[in-house]
Specification:
- About 80% of the residues lie in helices and about 5% in strands.
- The chain is mainly alpha-helical.
- A 3-stranded antiparallel beta sheet has the order 1-3-2.
- Helix 4 packs antiparallel against helix 7, helix 7 crosses helix 10 and helix 8 packs antiparallel against helix 10.
- The longest helix has about 50 residues.
- It starts with a strand and ends with a strand.
């Protein structure tokens, strides 16, 4: 037999021997120590042999007591069953994670194959490549670029006329809206005025870009946003037209005539002419811009497809890494449980020696031995004390040899040799 870890901590479930039985056994060991000591005149050398015999007797009794061994092993057997169940569950988890990793890797290989095949057979992936997209794109750009210049010039001129220009009676209708020297005159007025009229067209270009972005994702919320942006653009054009018409009216107003008002602006053809010269051209620019962006997107459907697939590969790779780390942690736990299972199996296959009980009986045997020396053996006081001390030393050596000098464990476990 081998000793597994030498000792086991006491289990709560272990059933202690009945107190009356232990008391009877203690008395028997006390008497046996006394009688043996009497037979050999208390010699310390004989005590060593006696203790060894006591231990061998106790050892064999415990080993042959199957009922007691079953009681002592029951908590370890219960724990072994729990560990075995835990091992099976974790093995199943490891198997599932391994299957997930394999599936993800197969998915990555399939995605890579799709990336290779999409260029040759785009229709198999739901990608409809229109050969006319290039023609539509270039036609759209032919219209979009001049329209952008027109809107840029229109809003620079209109903004300068509305906010900074001083009219006189000699200005014709066209000159009230269009100011050929808007940038030069704005620069003369100051850098802030120049910045205002120079960058105001980009407000409208930004609104057009936002309309395109919202229109791409056709949701009710985006429809509301598009309508809101169009209303904002219309109101901005209406304000510019109103400010210009107001300046013209005030310049030509005769004494007694009413000041310019919104009702007058609505009835004025010039007001609507300015609005539609800007707003309608802006709407046309927005439609052409949207068409150009859509046709451009069609040209890059394969690139978009590849980009989305590469992103999917990255996501799958990250998922594989996380799954591998999780599986590694589970395997480490499985290794710990396997070691614990082997230890418990060894305990169940071997036998358990309730060592604390033996120490109790060995002490009683020593007491009986020393009782004879102190009570009946005729010796001088010093010789008697020395003999008792020698017997205590023999007892301590006996306990040390059995590795029983500490009191922090209840059982010693013996396992079969492999």
């Amino acid at each position: 037999m081998e000793i597994l870890n030498k000792v086991l901590p006491k289990k709560k479930e272990e059933i202690a021997a009945p107190q009356n039985t232990i008391a009877i056994q203690k008395k028997d060991y006390l008497n046996e120590g006394y009688d043996t000591s009497k037979a050999c005149r208390g010699r310390a050398s004989n005590l060593k042999t006696g203790l060894e015999m006591v231990y061998e007797k106790y050892f064999n009794q415990c080993k042959l007591d199957e009922h007691k061994q079953k009681q002592l092993k029951q908590p370890y057997l219960t724990e072994l069953n729990e560990v075995t169940t835990d091992i099976k569950n974790k093995e199943n988890e490891v198997q599932e994670l391994t299957q997930q990793i394999t599936t993800h890797r197969e998915d990555i290989q399939q995605i890579k194959q799709d990336i290779i095949l999409v260029k040759k057979q785009p229709e198999n992936f739901g990608i409809d490549i229109e050969h006319k997209s290039n023609i539509k794109l270039w036609i759209g750009l032919v219209f979009l670029i001049p329209l952008s210049f027109y809107i840029f010039i229109f809003y620079i001129s209109t903004a300068y006329s509305a906010f900074f220009k001083k009219f006189d009676s000699k200005n014709a209708l066209f000159e009230t809206v269009f100011e050929a020297d808007a940038l030069t005159r704005a620069l003369e007025d100051g850098p802030l005025e120049l910045g205002f009229v120079l960058f105001i067209p980009f407000v409208f270009f930004s609104l057009g870009y936002l309309i395109h972005m919202f229109w791409e994702r056709k949701t009710n919320a985006n429809y509301i946003k598009v309508v809101g942006l169009l209303l904002i653009t219309f109101l901005f054009d209406a304000i510019l037209a109103y400010l210009i018409d107001e300046k013209v009216h005030e310049l030509n107003r005769r004494r007694g005539e009413l000041h310019f008002s919104i009702s007058m602006a609505i009835q004025n053809a010039n007001f609507w002419l300015i609005i539609f010269a800007g707003f309608v051209s802006y709407i046309v620019w927005g439609l052409v811009f949207d068409m150009v962006m859509n046709e451009n997107a069609k040209r890059f459907k394969i690139q978009v497809f590849k980009r989305s697939k590469n992103e999917a590969i990255q996501d799958k790779t990250k998922l594989i890494d996380r799954t591998i780390k999780k599986r590694t942690r589970l395997k480490e736990k499985l290794d710990e449980l396997s070691i614990k299972s082997i230890r418990l199996e060894s305990i169940v296959a071997g036998f358990i020696l309730p060592i604390q009980n033996y120490k109790t009986f060995a002490v009683e045997y020593l007491k009986g031995w020393q009782k004879f020396i102190a009570a009946e053996l005729t010796l001088g006081k010093n010789e008697q004390e020395q003999l008792i001390s020698d017997c205590r030393a023999v007892y301590n050596d006996h306990m040390t040899a059995l590795d029983l000098e500490t009191d922090d464990y209840q059982n010693k476990v013996y396992t079969p040799k492999l």
